[in-house]
Design brief:
heterotrimer, A alpha/beta (about 650), B alpha+beta (about 250), C mainly alpha (about 230), B: about 250 residues, alpha+beta, Fumarate Reductase Iron-sulfur Protein, Chain B, domain 2, C: about 230 residues, mainly alpha, 3 helical TM bundles of succinate and fumarate reductases, two-stranded antiparallel ribbon, globular, binds flavin-adenine dinucleotide, binds protoporphyrin IX containing FE, binds iron/sulfur cluster, binds FE3-S4 cluster
Chain lengths: ~650, ~250, ~230
């Protein structure tokens, strides 16, 4: 299979506009004759549903939650980037593009990233017009802040609830279309299969999560905007319902899965406190602007942190990276936290935490200033951890946060299966091997509001108007049968171990071996362990309840089953990529000081995997899409 | 610590509900309330019993999925805290805890503690948006908005749609939820054009959904995890009156 | 623009109307107390006051009709709001507790229907009692007039009447101490400092007004109608 990214010709700055000019259009009166299924109502899915329906297409929108407004995007705190250059600090579309390419450690497509940077400004306009209450200056104009170590202030934000406000904007726009009849809305529906007829995506199979009914939906195109797969780790900052099922089932039907091993670990999260823990909570990255990260120099120093004198504190980021200090990028900060804890210097009951200390900041700026900046974060920490961060350092530890990998898509956001599109975190497209802060919201909305509405028309224009195979077509029959069979199978095992128990065990294998740092030996071991555990899962899992009723554990069982397969692919991908890049640190490929070493010669490609079956072992075929860099020069990242 | 639980079980919307009781001995003070329920469900499953269903997603207090009435209080005893952010250190060893779903005709029970809140979606559908087509927006900074109004709009916009206001309101009124969206949009110039149609449509929809009238009990504000002020309801009423004369 | 019918039947409209009628009734009460206190004025003051009212003739009927409309409208709305909560929550909680804090749930707010209903029954009895009570007459400025003063003083010699009045008037304190605040809120008062002051004013209003009313039967009863405040 030859992977064609369909990157348009022309100079970087004009690729997108030329492409839009050349694309085929669907006449407005014909649009209502086309139906588009959009799975997911996060920023990517919600924005697309609203926009496509406004254009006149018939949209069917699906989500797992009881309301579209609850999609995982709601949890994003920090902000959204755009190169508006309002602060006049030298920002430009080019600079945003360049930072994003570099931040991704040169493992993304230039053309995609440039388009993202270009479209970002329109996102802000759109959101403001919808009434999103972004932070403002006293002048009444929009405020910006610098975020995630960027050298310019280009992040738009709405207190610590940017994702919420942006999502509500998209949700409201979508609900308006529901009212007007352009969107048919299916909350509490989980997509279980894609239906492919004559090589094209023509529909999906869903389970009505309330009645348990397996339902068939036919359309002219299918969009998966189903988010990331961070929950394969069991513990992550993702919402509990985030999962890989939609993407994975599409993968099993032929869609390629790209770069599965690229997983971002966020350095500042509240550490794990015990086995019962169900998810991890992110503390905004902005805390590192004022907090100092340290561990005791002595192993097993169990004095209260406030009693440890300065000379016995190891401010490891400041010592190792004098110029960036506590503000090194996420991957570097996370890796170093793991390193010191592996050396046995970690703090807290589990030894898996480091201190984030505001003592000096409070001394310097006063309690009031610090509290004005971070008050709500401090309260949140206090509430969860039960310790007062004004009085003693916070304990933090890295946690899985975002997955750069996902379904392979071309420049038009279409997978290799015609008619099947993937947007937002569900695709692999724009962040390479590492995502910069405040850029996921940007990507989701850019895909949903601006890219997909243009490119889907280009696809539909070639499709016969009103062509329907009928949902009793053999392929629908087959896919519905498969969905039902898996559910029946899961319920029939009636084993001894709970789903959560399996998921937690799987998560630990994945975290220990495919987490912050990886090596060949561990990865091979992990593959074996995953396979064994998967075998056991299919013979010994206990799934309670019945299929024709609301049954959350049954939902989770199906998702965990998919995580088992995905986990193996992640390990394979990580094993295959014999270099370190971005978040993917292979211990074999690092400098003596522990810095990542990229191998552009051999690995400057997108690893896109083709599913070939599971039988004890997961069989996947690798396809490579080479990344060409015409406009930027590849450099080794350094934050020393 | 040991906690004695009493929780609502109901097989479906039309089924007769009942309480079930169970004592947990392995509760840890650092657990969140929902994690304690996870532990309950693990134990129930190991005993071969059906777990109790409850709604959740983010477990960070922002998605608004969780909505339990704990010892008679929506989201439990702490102010401005969603029940997923409530921690067991709030309780003492040996405490008895009763857990019920939000009870309202407009929120029919789906199963156990899970209810159908789609009425809220339909209230938003009725007018909780600004009609702007994608791509037709003007430059973002062309309309400055006074910081104060924008901050105020934000305060109302933070509603997470959890429905605790309805659960706690003695009348099962949705006024705080509806008022919050109306106040958010009507405080911003973007929402100005549709402001009167919006308020009338959304207020009508509340009634249509079977929520009760508001008697100004103010309990909604007290339980709201986002601390949304009942001034939202005042804003709604003002706009409604203005709509009558517009 | 909503139609009037739509507006009045909307949840906002209903509440605004309880507020407006409630405020109207409170204004009536202020006037009524003022009038009633003339019983402590000169010997004829009270009867002059009632006569003046009656001399209004047809105008009085219009005022009375308005008053009756306010009462009935207020009552219908109050009862219907109360009935609505049954419908909005058919199944109640096993355990229910207010969260305190900024909540305005209180004995007063939760018993509006009880205090209101008692007042409603009281009103019927009260009107039968005085308006349609014994028709004593007296002479004022050479004209014959109804001696309501005598009737009032006589009635308030009866223990059960006084106990009944005081009971109702205490309930009225409850009704007003939430109602006064609530009415402003219904009419769009926002929360914050003003609202807190209005709540204090509501307590003050309810208590002062009703102490005023209570004073009349209690004083007359204790002094047997011959106290020094009452001149002959
Ligand atoms: C705590 C936290 C903070 C963050 N902060 C920031 C930030 O400050 N800035 C930033 O840019 N990014 C941030 N991110 C990342 C960003 O929020 C996400 O990457 C982004 O929101 C993903 O959006 P999405 O639309 O692709 O998917 P999601 O929002 O995850 O939506 C997925 C949707 O798919 C649905 N779905 C999934 N599977 C199925 C199925 N099988 N059937 C039916 N429906 C399905 C779900 O119901 C949901 O509606 C943060 C992430 C986290 C976890
Ligand atoms: C002189 C007599 C009365 C006065 C001064 C009075 C005053 C008020 C006021 C000011 C309010 C607040 C209105 C609002 O919240 O907007 C109120 C509410 C109420 N009144 Fe009265 N009222 C009187 C008589 C009655 C009567 C006879 C009833 C009959 C049942 C009644 C029942 C109620 C009820 C139930 C409420 C609460 C309404 C709600 O829940 O929203 N009241 N009253
Ligand atoms: C102790 C206190 C009170 C006294 C002495 C008193 C006395 C009177 C008298 C003498 C009348 C007859 C007036 C007439 O026929 O012209 C009257 C009428 C009336 N009273 Fe009172 N009253 C008292 C308390 C109240 C209260 C608390 C209310 C309301 C809740 C009330 C409501 C009315 C009404 C509605 C009428 C009829 C008015 C009319 O039809 O013109 N009174 N009262
Ligand atoms: S107003 Fe508050 S309590 Fe009501 S739905 Fe919104 S966040 Fe929940
Ligand atoms: S508690 Fe209910 S009565 Fe009104 S003020 Fe809040 S909605
Ligand atoms: S689970 Fe999201 S708010 Fe509680």
């Amino acid at each position: 299979m030859k992977l064609d990214g369909k990157i348009p010709e022309g100079p970087l700055e004009q690729k997108w506009s030329l492409h839009k000019k050349n694309m085929k259009l669907v006449a407005p009166n014909n649009r209502r004759k086309y139906e588009v299924i959009i799975v997911g109502t996060g920023l990517a899915g919600g924005a697309a549903a609203a926009s496509l329906a406004e254009m006149g297409y018939k949209v069917k929108s699906f989500c797992i939650q009881d309301s579209a407004r609850r999609a995982h995007s709601i949890a994003a705190q920090g902000g959204i980037n755009a190169a508006k250059n309002y602060p006049n600090d030298g920002d430009s579309v080019w600079r945003l593009f360049y930072d994003t390419i570099k931040g991704g450690d040169y493992r993304s497509r230039e053309a995609n990233v440039y388009r993202l940077a270009e479209v970002a400004n329109n996102i802000i306009d759109q959101a403001v017009a919808q009434g999103v209450p972004f932070a403002r200056e006293y002048s009444g104009l929009l405020a910006n802040r610098s975020f995630g170590g960027a050298q310019v202030s280009r992040t738009f934000y709405a207190r610590g609830q940017t994702g919420q406000q942006l999502l509500l904007g998209a949700y409201q726009a979508m609900m308006r279309q529901v009212q007007e009849g352009g969107v048919e809305y299916f909350p509490r529906h989980e997509m279980l299969e894609v239906v492919i007829i004559d090589g094209k995506a023509r529909g999906i199979i869903t389970r009505d999560l309330v009645s348990g009914e397996i339902v068939r939906h036919e359309a002219d195109a299918v969009v998966l905007a189903t988010g990331g797969y961070g929950n394969v780790f069991y513990l992550s900052t993702n919402a509990k319902n985030s999962n890989v099922t939609a993407a994975w089932r599409a993968h099993k039907k032929g869609a390629l899965f790209a770069n599965p091993c690229y997983v971002q670990v966020h350095p500042t999260c509240i550490p794990v406190s015990g086995d019962y823990q169900s998810k991890l909570t992110l503390m905004s990255e902005s805390l590192r602007n004022d907090g100092r990260v340290w561990v005791p120099r002595k192993k097993g120093d169990d004095r209260h942190p406030n009693d440890i004198p300065d000379e016995e504190r190891y401010y490891y980021l400041e010592e190792r990276y004098p110029s960036f200090g506590n503000l090194v990028p996420r991957d570097v900060a996370s890796r170093n936290a793991k390193l010191v804890c592996d050396e046995g210097l970690g703090v807290g009951e589990t030894g898996l935490a480091v201190y984030l200390d505001f003592r000096d900041a409070i001394k310097r700026d006063g309690l009031d200033t610090i509290s004005a900046k971070y008050g709500n974060l401090f309260d949140m920490y206090h509430n969860i951890a039960g310790e007062n961060p004004y009085k003693q350092p916070m304990k933090i530890y890295p946690a899985v946060h975002y997955t750069m990998g996902g379904l392979w898509v071309d420049y038009n956001l279409m997978t290799n299966v015609p008619g099947l599109f993937a947007t937002g975190e569900a695709n692999f497209s724009d962040h390479g091997a590492n995502r910069l802060g405040a850029s996921a919201l940007m990507q989701g909305l850019s895909d949903g509001y601006f890219v997909l509405p243009a490119t889907i028309g280009n696809y539909l224009a070639d499709e016969e108007i009103g062509k329907r195979y009928g949902t009793d077509h053999a392929e629908f029959e087959k896919a519905a049968g498969e969905a039902q069979a898996q559910i029946d199978k899961l319920l029939s095992i009636k084993g001894k171990r709970t789903i959560v128990d399996f998921h937690r065990t799987l998560g630990k294998i994945v975290w220990d071996n495919i987490g912050i740092a990886r090596n060949a030996e561990d990865l091979k071991k992990a593959i074996k362990e995953i396979q064994e555990l998967r075998e056991e899962f299919w013979t010994n899992v206990y799934v309670p309840g019945e299929k024709n009723n609301y049954n959350k554990y049954l939902e989770f069982a199906g998702r965990v089953a998919d995580f088992f397969e995905l986990a193996e692919l992640m390990a394979k991908d990580a094993l295959d990529r014999e270099e370190s890049c971005g978040c993917h640190l292979r211990e074999e490929y690092q400098s003596e000081e522990g810095e990542a070493i990229r191998n552009d010669e051999d690995f400057s490609y997108v690893a896109a995997w083709e599913y070939q079956g599971v039988n004890g072992e997961l069989k996947e075929q690798l396809h490579k899409e080479n990344l060409e860099f015409e406009f930027v020069e590849l450099k080794q990242r350094s934050y020393k | 610590m040991t906690i004695h639980l009493k929780y609502w079980k109901q097989d479906g919307p039309d089924a007769q509900g009942y309480f079930e009781e169970k004592t947990l001995d392995t509760v840890n003070e650092h657990m969140s309330f929902l994690e304690m329920l996870d532990v309950l469900n693990e134990e129930l499953q190991l005993e071969g019993k059906d777990p109790v269903e409850f709604d959740y997603d983010c477990r960070e207090g922002i998605c608004g999925s969780c909505n339990l009435v704990i010892n008679g209080q929506a989201h439990g005893p702490n102010a401005k805290t969603a029940c997923c952010q409530l921690h067991m250190r709030t309780y003492n060893d040996g405490d008895h805890i009763t857990i019920e779903p939000p009870r309202a005709a407009a929120f029919p029970v789906i199963k156990d503690l899970v209810v159908d809140r789609s009425g809220f979606d339909r209230i938003i559908e009725a007018g909780g948006y600004v009609s702007v087509k994608t791509g037709s927006a003007q430059e973002a900074n062309s309309t400055p908005i006074e910081k104060h109004s924008s901050d105020m709009a934000f305060d109302y916009a933070t509603c997470i749609g959890c429905g605790a206001c309805v659960a706690a309101c003695p009348n099962a009124s949705a006024s705080l939820f509806t008022g919050a969206k109306i106040a958010h949009l009507n405080k911003m110039p973007q929402g100005e054009v549709e402001r009167y149609d919006r308020v009338v449509a959304m207020v009508d929809q509340m009634k249509e959904e079977g929520f009760g009238d508001c008697s100004n009990y103010g309990e909604c504000e007290a339980v709201c995890p986002q601390g949304i002020s009942i001034s939202a309801i005042a804003e709604m009423r003002r706009d409604y009156v203005k709509a009558m004369f517009s | 623009m909503p139609s009037l019918k739509q507006a009045l039947s909307s949840q906002v409209g209903r509440k605004i109307m309880t507020g407006i009628t409630g405020i109207g009734l409170m204004l009536f009460l202020i006037g009524h107390l003022g009038g009633n206190l003339t019983i402590f004025g000169t010997a004829d003051a009270f009867n002059i006051y009632t006569k003046t009212l009656m001399d209004l003739g047809p105008l009085l009927y219009v005022i009375e009709a308005g008053l009756a409309f306010f009462f009935l409208y207020h009552t219908v709305l109050g009862v219907s709001i109360w009935l609505g909560r049954r419908k909005a929550r058919p199944q109640g909680y096993d355990t229910y507790k207010t969260k305190g804090g900024t909540s305005h749930q209180s004995l007063a707010s939760r018993s509006m229907i009880i205090s209101g209903s008692v007042m409603f029954i009281f009103l019927i009895l009260h009107i039968i009692h005085f308006k349609f009570g014994a028709d004593y007459t007296t002479m004022i400025d050479g004209e014959q007039a109804r001696d309501l003063r005598k009737l009032v003083i006589e009635e308030f010699q009866k223990t059960w009447v006084v106990i009944g009045y005081v009971f109702v008037l205490v309930l009225a304190i409850l009704h007003l101490s939430h109602g006064f605040w609530s009415a402003f809120t219904s009419l769009g008062m926002k929360h914050g400092e003003t609202s807190k002051k209005v709540q204090l004013a509501a307590y003050a209003f309810g208590i002062i007004l009703m102490l005023g009313f209570i004073f009349i039967p209690v004083y007359i009863y204790i002094t047997g109608g011959e106290g020094s405040l009452i001149s002959y």
